[in-house]
Amino acid sequence: MGDTPRRLLQRLIRRIPAQELKPTLEKWGRLSQAQLQTIDFTQSKWALTGKLGTICEERNWAVKHITELELIYNAHTVELLQFKEQFKSNLSELIRNVSVKIKKHTDEAVWIRIAWGDGLSQPNHFKPTYVVHYLQTPYVFVTSLNSKQKPLLSQALVLATSYHAIKDANLSGRKFTAIRDLLMRQYEQVFPRKFHSPLKERNQIVTDPHIEREQAESSANRLQMACEAFGGGKLPQLQSAVYKLETKFRGHNKSMTQREEPIRCVVKFASTNILESLRNCASSGIASTPVTPLLSSIPLKGRNYFVITDNGPGPSQTRQQN
Amino acid sequence: MIISVVKTPRNSDGAQRSSYRQSYRSYVGAVSRLGLTSALTARRLNTSRRAPRAHNITDKVSPEHLAVLVKKEWQLSYVTPLFQFRHTQLKRYSQQLSAFIAAERQGVAVEVEEPQHSFKASFSVVHGMAEAEEDAETILIQVHSKHHFSRRDDPEKCVWSGWLACINGSPEYIRSLPKDFICLPLFGSSGGDPLTSSVKSWFQQTFDCCFGSLEINHTSLQWLGSLWTNCQPESNIQHLKMIWAVPVVPPLQITYTVNPQDAWELWTCVRKDAQVEKEGEEEEEEEEEGIIDIEEVNMFMQELKSHFYRHFKLDLSAGNLVQVSTALGSAKTSGRIKISNSRYMISTLTLLTECALLKMPV
């Protein structure tokens, strides 16, 4: 290995932050899985450079290969740097006395902390707004933002990400990972299947095998449909779902059902994990199966706020509004 | 102009045949003498009651007292009849209770005459609350505290308040009580638990009574929801909010909030239908207009539940109604009640007095 590639490698390794080294090398794709495993990433960068230098020498890799690695690293940092710069300058153009800290986590997420002030007051660091944005995805997660700050943040984000507009996803919750998983569909989904799995044998004393089987069948059926609607396994932890209903009265009272105007109500479901509670409602029979689209829309659409109105003159159809 | 004669109803028929522990339930059962079944059916709440009328209670009850009663959340209990309670001895009771609290706090006996303790209890009569002839006047108890280090002219802080009431209590039951027993079955308290238990034990020792927790069951909650909704034309209830607890894992809470005007319109539609049905059955036109029937209440709730079911395919009957609230007040199954508008306070307290009488042990 010549002097140029060695120095190039040295300089590059020095620039890449320690926690980024492994993912960047993985993206490079030149090292086999076995080789990657032999590298101890807790070592000093100097030792790492030596180790990588030996590998390069063995493989006879030259400047061409090293510059490839540099490009991979730069492409990523450029995107982040660009976003950082754009966002900061856009926001400070819109509002004075605002303090912005941006940090990138290993999983592609950019965390932004904004302390707001205004023309007269200094930034208030006790009531910051947190924003999480996954680069290359169209999603932004925001905490504690008031109506005054919302348009400012939206504009800065739109300009920095070069999207056209920003839209409320109607999803909120206390657990960041849960709403992220719901929005990005990162949880175990169960797909409808026609044939149910054969029942497992149980050690119970069977009084009447026919009744037993029938009941077990219907409960297995309910469970299957509950999982199809809400997902199987552990579900994202969402605390509530709110429905604003403006639909015609659907009870039995004649004079009320004949009334033209809709009946206005708000229904809120709350639990430590509503998806699990609702799945339990469906599998235990408290909620009829198949689960109504109103409820299964929560995981399906990744939303927990809905406005429901009647769709046209037909009394039996409902429509979800955005 | 106002003649302030304190009413401690005396039971005129001096028949002292049963102990004070005779309850409303056993009373009704004993009257019918038809054994267990009738006693059990008699344990139910009244199946019809008068629609709440806006009482001009502000004319009868002093604003200071109303201010204490309204807008505070009270934890309810029932109390068995008080032996030898006198509305004329309130000053003495105030001293005794103050001393009792101080003693319980310090664990030592304190002289009754000593006025230096940091807790001061005061009894007062809330005039104008009693509705029926037999109702004893409502008693208000307040405990004020003064910090040891505070200056002499610092205002005392009210740290605990409570009241004992009987509003439209069953006259038959009250008359059946032996002499010297006063029926004030509804006890509401607001303040720290140690003080509540001190007050309760003082009452138990002094008037040989006992206390028990008063839960507000789903029937009573439905009654309150309907009675409040019925007030909508006169006084905006702002919303009819009902909370159900659904027993799944993890527990699910469903809050169902209905627009006040829509709730009222559904209520009137339900009532109209029920009235038509009733007229078809019997020709008695002379039915009082202000009477509400349990069937109407049940139907109203059923209609709200089916409207819900048609949307969510989830049966609310599988859960428990745990809370009902409107701008007029809120009630929780745990026995917590808040009355936000004094105009309809009497009908709420009438229902709760009935619940308290029913809850008393046999």
Précis, in short:
Chain A is an alpha+beta fold and about 325 residues long.
Key descriptive features of the protein:
heterodimer, A: about 325 residues, alpha+beta, Ubiquitin-like (UB roll), 3 domains, four-stranded antiparallel sheet, four-stranded mixed sheet, flat, B: about 350 residues, 2 domains, eleven-stranded antiparallel sheet, two-stranded antiparallel ribbon, 11 helices, about 35% helix, globular, centromere (chain B), Centromere protein L (chain B)
Describe the structure.
- Chain A: Pfam families: CENP-N.
- Chain A: This is Centromere protein N.
- The complex is a heterodimer of chains A (322) and B (362).
- Helices cover 45% and strands 17% of the residues of chain A.
- Chain A has helices at 3-15, 18-28, 33-38, 45-59, 63-94, 149-161, 176-183, 209-230, 254-257, 274-284, 293-301; strands at 99-104, 109-116, 124-134, 140-142, 240-247, 263-270, 305-310, 318-321.
- Chain A is flat.
- The model of chain A is unreliable at 198-202 and 312-317 (pLDDT under 50).
- Chain B is α+β, with helices and mostly antiparallel strands.
- Chain B has 2 domains: 50-214, no CATH class; 218-281 and 291-333, no CATH class.
- Chain B is globular, with a radius of gyration of 22 Å.
- The two termini of chain B are 44 Å apart.
- In chain B, 41% of the residues are buried.
- The A-B interface holds A 243, 245, 247, 249-256, 259, 261, 263-274, 276-278, 280-281, 284, 286-288, 291-292, 294-295, 308, 318 and B 246, 248-259, 262, 265-266, 269-270, 272-273, 299, 302-304, 306-308, 310-315, 318-319.
